[in-house]
Amino acid sequence: MAAMPKLHMIQATYGDCMLLEFPDTSVASKKKFWLVDGGPGNQTRSATFKVTNNSLFATLNSTSLNIDRLERVIITHNDRDHTYGAYALISTLKDAKISVTTGGGSEFLKFVSWLNGYTAMNPITGPKKFPIDHIWFNDFNVLKAASFIDEAADKGTGWLFALLRDFTNYYPFDTFPVINDDWAGGPVVMPKPDTVPDFSNIAKITGPTKDQLVTLWTSKKRRMLGVKSGPPPWKQTALEYKKSKEDATAEMPSSIEKWGTDLETATNRLGDPSETNLSSIMFEFSNSGKRILMTGDGDGDTLYSAYNETSPDPFNIIKICHHGSCHNNNIMHTTDGVAIVPREAIQNSVQRFFSTFRAEKYVISSDTLNRTPNPDIETVTYMGSLFASQPNHPVKAVYFTNGMTYKSWRAFYYASTSSTATQNTSIALKVLKHGYVHQSKADF
Ligand SMILES: [Zn+2]
């Protein structure tokens, strides 16, 4: 048997969808599953590409994993490329009732399996347990629920709550997930409040903090009201560093000069301005001596404080932030696809990410169909050059979920000089998925 835990990457077009598999220590030979994000569900991307509504349910059932319930569904943040597929999964379970009553075939057995314990469908006595035990979700409504802010109008948990409530009208379960019940109804934050259960032996939360979430909501609200927002306060370090040096202009990289020497603009370009992305639940999953860093669409900067600005031991796997966007991995975006490593304080930040958060395997939820394909070419180029310059870096492979463009392959291999090319060619670039529909997974 392959070593546990496993991270299964489910191809989710331009979204994220992952499954963590690990032993259930309370029942011999049983396994537990955490779903991390649901992908974009039935979002249509183009005339030639469509993900059907029930594809995630079908995908989970098509594996040999015998999944019949999910201990946790973790929706990292409220963007559709992470949420809609999770909603669709729950909708599919509910709609399966219809196919059952109209004589649905093989779906019936899968459905009963997922609803194991539901007496009306399955003559097993005992509590009727909803097939998902716990849901984590960091939208901004959970800040209001915890009285951290006065008002919020996020549709995320609102939609999810309505969906779950609709489900109970079909099936009166005895146990039912309450969103963020693990977190006393509040946000999933770092550090974990004393009032919530201890996950430290499985999941160490690495971001965000409660204060960061409140700041992000304030920023989002201001922007919705038309007030220009600057970068979040913890992203201003580089800007303030520059402003503290009158002669800093001489140190500016040429790409910043292209945009003018507006330091704020430059700093904003460096960081991801999306409040929802930055609210992502980030966590280190550890089990059986293996460690996997899950990053959502969050930001590398948040991770530094989670690890007290020190470099943790290499991980087995790191899920690269935000589909490999250069914004969230501290590589500057350029119009010509050339990786720019900003100097001075910014440079420290850039060099730090892949040097600080080392792993044997990096995975990128990538989408070559998007008009601006993820990962950003700058990220691939930078990874290639950094790994080539660090012969002792533990990296063995970089995985992509949806194929890699020829441009990306080239960028990775040609990022190094001829003297270091051997290092890069020794790092496997692996494509986890070819094709356009959910049907693939990858084990680690
Ligand atoms: Zn995303």
From TrEMBL:
Top-level taxon of origin: Eukaryota
InterPro entries named in the record: Competence_DNA_uptake, RibonucZ/Hydroxyglut_hydro
Protein name: Metallo-beta-lactamase domain-containing protein
Organism expressing this protein natively: Hyaloscypha hepaticicola
